[in-house]
Amino acid sequence: xxxxxxxxxxxxxxxxxxxxxxxxxxxxxxxxxxxxxxxxxxxxxxxxxxxxxxxxxxxxxxxxxxxxxxxxxxxxxxxxxxxxxxxxxxxxxxxxxxxxxxxxxxxxxxxxxxxxxxxxxxxxxxxxxxxxxxxxxxxxxxxxxxxxxxxxxxxxxxxxxxxxxxxxxxxxxxxxxxxxxxxxxxxxxxxxxxxxxxxxxxxxxxxxxxxxxxxxxxxxxxxxxxxxxxxxxxxxxxxxxxxxxxxxxxxxxxxxxxxxxxxxxxxxxxxxxxxxxxxxxxxxxxxxxxxxxxxxxxxxxxxxxxxxxxxxxxxxxxxxxxxxxxxxxxxxxxxxxxxxxxxxxxxxxxxxxxxxxxxxxxxxxxxxxxxxxxxx
Length: 376
Hints:
It contains four helices and 24 strands. It is α+β, with helices and mostly antiparallel strands. Among the domains are: about 30-60 and about 305-375, Beta Barrel (conserved putative lor/sdh protein from methanococcus maripaludis s2 fold); about 65-70 and about 220-295, Elongation Factor Tu (Ef-tu), domain 3 (Beta Barrel), CATH 2.40.30; about 110-180, Helix Hairpins (Orthogonal Bundle), CATH 1.10.287. Strands 1, 2, 4, 19, 20, 21, 22 and 23 form an eight-stranded antiparallel beta sheet that branches. A six-stranded antiparallel barrel has the order 5-14-17-16-15-18. A hairpin with a 2-residue loop joins strand 22 (about 330-340) and strand 23 (about 345-350). Helix 2 (about 110-140) packs antiparallel against helix 3 (about 145-170).
């Protein structure tokens, strides 16, 4: 028993001496609040790396979208009269001039409009002659003043009806020379036939305009196109009418310059995106309608602070980084983060250009800081 007690006492003395040697040989870092100071020669300093933060140019913002026709130079043509298609005078992709005939439609409704114009012309001519006769008779005291006034009223009504019928036919590019019931569907603009939804013998009705039936012809000038883009709320500061952007498409390796024409005043309630329209030149005719595209929006020369993602710690709903103050001194600081760009994080608040941020060893510093706080 005495031997056992002696051995136990000796082991306890040796353990105490070993711990005392360890404590005196490895000095501990000093922790004050969010600050850590390592003594010179600490082994932990070898595992800590830092880098100086500098302002970096903000990269261009990428938007997705598609190519559409320029609606200011596009017209969708429907027939204003019911009838049957007799002849189609143009082909898909054909370049046409303003006023060129597209198709001929046999239409009883158009024949009725021609007949109304002829009848209105005859009534007007008759009322004009009757008014002239009564004016002459009234001057000689043969006709009563009341009869002359009635003739003037009839003349006014006949003239108004004649003007209405004549202008109606002129609106559709027709004349009142004869009643042939043959209506010519023509183009109000010059351009290219990019869509044709009409066949010989097809029955057409003007009420198709309010249904889902496509137009008979779509005419546009493809030398100018629109780029319809989807942007987020965060992109709004970069978007304004007249701003140059660059369009890309998978079909080509070239850049296509464009300009922002309009920015929508509301967000799509489902996608939470804002519609942006840009106008681009297509005189080379390389781009086609409904192409998928991407657009690069320049950041107007703005700069930002970026730090490696591994340097940012998240705790308690907040983000932190460790600042290297030199001489083994490190300070934990709260920061406000922004966008994530690959392996880097944008810092909006909490850092200044030229400060050194710990990029390797942040977790070790956090573990060193936490026990000290728990002990306090």
